[in-house]
What does this fold into?
Amino acid sequence: MQRNGESTAPPAREAPEAMSLAAFLGCLQLTDSAFPSGRYTQSSGLESFVQHGYVTADSGRQGLTALLVDQLEHAVGPTDGVALAWAHRAVSRRAPGQELDLALAVEADQRLTAVKLAREVRESSTRTGRSLLRTATTVFGGAALEAFSGAVRSGATPGNAAVVTGVLMAQQGIPTDHAVAAELYAYAAGWVNAAVRLGVADHRVAQAVLHAGRPVVERTGRLACRTALADMAGSTPLADLMSMRHEHAPLRLFMS
Amino acid sequence: MSHGQGSHSHHPAHEHPHDVAEHDQDLPRLGGPVPRVGIGGPVGSGKTALIEALVPLLVAEGHRPVVVTNDIFTQEDARHVRATLAGVLEEDKVVGVETGSCPHTAVRDDPTMNLDAVQALTERFPDTDVVLLESGGDNLTLTYSRALADFFVFVIDVGEGDKIPRKRGPGITASDLLVINKIDIAPHVRADLSVMERDARMVREGRPFVLTDCFSGTGLRQVIDHLRAAGVLAATRAPV
It folds into this structure.
């Protein structure tokens, strides 16, 4: 699906926006691992990497950081990050009188589903997204969120988590670059948490990996904010294969 | 699943329990130098009974153990261990740690409170040569952090049904030692021990398991032999 070109072209470098304290607190709440979004059920392919022996307890901080960085730079940033940024703009740059540029949010959502190759990855993204929508419409409300929620309920759009998060964060006044960085951070935090539960990292290694990934979150997030909607694409063939194999794994602790 | 705790070939701690952080060399060992045995398993499988049976044997061999228990709501396990081991182990050598209703979190995701309890207890009793940790009763997915336990013992029991070993889960497949407890009740719960042995052998892929009856003492000597072979029991001096 392609909208008319200009509105989804690569945005010029956006001036950094200041974030209000209220928005900062909203950002903390949404990225908190205690927020009930179901993220704890996902290892984002890591369980399969462990099952196939690519990641072990000996991978250590270096090995785990390398894999996390690849996932952020080549999968999550250029796909979920880009989708989130455009979903955010569907709220923050909507026309006067509009609640939401629904067509733009839907296009970001549909493109995101299209570039997620493995079924398991697509399904876990939309299950998490729908779960987030159900919680967020009750807790936060808001016209933009209600409008997008209606589109998901009607089947017009899949409701990926990154897109729901983009709409939600924009509605709370969280600037685009902060919103994208927060989502990438939440992904990384969930990933290292899965590493602990899979026994390939202890609590200190997990936090060290998360710390080491911080500049990558920042860099990848900024790049996602400058990427055209039509250029949304990831490239992690081994991770895709791992996810496809995970769909058939007889033993699974995680949904993905 | 390849799992750190049970992967003998990948886990340097098994050869050198005093240097558990060897693979991440600039991370210092937490909780003090005394070797630690982490015992986990489902509710009622016999974790407390195993500790209560092991401690007198260890003391008789000249070891100086201390015990850290994790309870769900109460200090019931700590009280039970203290009462059962009265005359064998000083009451103050048993401490309970509350887990905020998350037994697996306390021994895996965030073991800091247990590490703190271990540190305090071993500093208070500096001649301690082994720490026995008991997790709160959980399910088949419980594992120990490599930062907390040098040796992970997973306890299941015959009363849960003879299908339990083949249900697998990281504790059953990848723990350093699987204990199948309460073998004495097998006839009463229609459990076939030969099936449990066969399945345990299959899913453990060469890792050891022991059949025990903690009340009669069956299998306990084998458990101690495994602890010694793994290096978590130091050479003992004569009992005083």
Q: What stands out?
A: The helical segments of chain B are 47-60, 76-84, 103-109, 112-124, 164-167, 170-174, 193-204, 220-230. Chain B touches chain A through 27 residues (CB under 8 Å). Residues 1-22 of chain B have pLDDT under 50 and may be disordered.
